[in-house]
Amino acid sequence: MIPALIIVAAIGVWAVVVYNGLVKLRVLGDNAWADIDVQLKRRHDLIPNVVEVVKGHAGYERGTLERVVEARTAAMSARAEGPEARGEAEGALSQALGRLFALAESYPDLKAGASYRQLQQTLVEVEDAIQNARRYYNAVVRDFNTAAQRFPSNILAGTFGFKAREYFHLEAATEAAVPDVQLDESHGKQ
Fold it and tell me: Which residues, 6+ apart, have CB-to-CB distance to 114 below 8 Å?
């Protein structure tokens, strides 16, 4: 009878340890997602200022600014969605911002403006913070998903409703594609 009680007690202790570990990883994941949300909100809040500074200079391309505003609106609308949908919307916003900054290269007076330079620097800092938060979140998700799928803890995870979490990918599909490089064979021939 005593060996059976020891086995039951050991299983109970194991279940508590595994359950608490899963809860800890879930809470860390929620916290990491909140960090991403804060950085994305900072990014969204900066974009109207960038658009206004660019608008203030003659020769801006209205279509580029409209695409940035539309992409920002779509990204803000995706806040309630999961990491995959949110990542797609944020990737589209990143592409629109990239086009806007490429456009700014054509206007030296815009690039030289202190307001524009400061906004661009702040956006670079926010982008770095987003990347760091994304890496941390994805690491926590990896650890959580591994713990929830590993035997025998997967039995407890399934029993208590711990479901796999989605990773947050900010890169656009076009950025992940291998570039097509074509070399001119006549180049370098004498």
Answer: none
CATH 3.30.2010.10 fits 2-167, yes or no: no
SS3 180: coil
Contacting residues for 126 by C-beta, under 8 A, at least 6 apart: 39, 42, 43, 46
Radius of gyration, alpha carbons of the chain: 24
Quick: pLDDT tens for 141-175.
999 999 999 999 999 999 999 999 999 987 644 44
What CA–CA distances, in Å, run from 119 to 42, 43, 52, 86, 96? Answer: 12, 11, 11, 24, 16
pTM more than 0.90: no
Residue with tokens 């060996």: 3
Picking from 54, 55, 60, 94, the residue whose alpha carbon sits closest to that of residue 74 is: 94
Query: Cα(75)–Cα(73) distance, rounded to whole angstroms?
Result: 5
CB 63 within 8 A of CB 145: no
Residue ranges of domains in the chain: 2-167
Neighbours of 130 (CB within 10 A): 21
Runs of H (alpha helix) within the chain: 2-55, 62-77, 83-104, 108-112, 114-149, 153-159, 173-176
